[in-house]
Amino acid sequence: MDLHELIARGEGEELEFKQKTTHPHRISRTLVSLANTRGGRVLVGIDDAGRVLGVRDVEEELFVLHDAAAHYVEPPLTNMRYREVEEDGRAVIIVTVPESTGKPHRALVAAGDWRGYVRVRDASVQTSGLTEKLLERQQLESQFEKIPLNKQELTAIDYLRTHPRITLAQYMKLVNFGKRRAFQTLIKLVLHGYIRHHDKEKEPYYTL
Fold it and tell me: Among 10, 44, 52, 156, whose CB has the most other CB atoms within 10 angstroms?
């Protein structure tokens, strides 16, 4: 996929635009969120509107990216790929971040302050303890396979096909389950890859 095709897709779960990297503290959050989710790319030298501005110093940008991956991410990201492309005399760096097999990763956001992030739509969102446990468990089980679903599980999927999200309370009401059973059902769907858990708001929610 060439640069114009990538830009045309717009920012999303697997694509981030960065005018420049500025500091390893900041870019480490993006790298971690992509590695902890489905992987993706960072286009350095592209502004939020998708305009090709280019970077002033490719070597300096690459130094910051390497520094962030090695020293501002724990465990470090060792398999990122970098490609320099030129558009109308402007240099853009395409950074490919594979989905990690060593989740969860955390970013150093301040001295001694390591935090986990996942990708939610076009944002890097700080994880909760629950999300990190899910990421760890996925790695231990080498990713769960899809399984046949029962009526109550299918109810959650069907609801999300016509609604943007569902909360635990909404699901409890929908299937007439108690809190514990409803939570276990939703987490089972998360672990088997049917839905996703989000916790960037006060009340966690689930999406397809």
Answer: 44
Domain end among 63, 95, 127:
127
Contacts of 113 (CB under 8 A, 6+ apart): none
In a domain, residue 134? The reply is no
Per the structure block, which two tokens stand in for 93? Answer: 């760096």
Residue pair 89/44 in contact (Cβ under 8 Å)? The answer is no
Is the separation of the CB atoms in 206 and 134 below 8 Å? Answer: no
Is 29 among the domain residues?
A: yes
Tokens of 178: 């108690």
Q: Can you give the pTM of this predicted structure?
A: 0.69
Per-residue model confidence as pLDDT tens digits over 56-65 = 999 999 999 9
Place of tokens 């992030």: 117
Whose structure tokens read 């910051």?
64
- What are 134-172's pLDDT values in tens digits? 666 665 554 555 678 899 999 999 999 999 999 999 999
* Residue pair 165/180 in contact by the 8 Å Cβ criterion: no
Angle between helices 168-175 and 151-162 (to 10 degrees): 120
Both structure tokens of 73: 């991410």
CA 159 to chain centre: 24
Q: By residue range, what is the domain housing residue 160?
A: 144-207
Q: CA-to-CA distance for 81 and 97, rounded, in angstroms? A: 7
The domain spanning residue 54 has which CATH number? 3.30.950.30
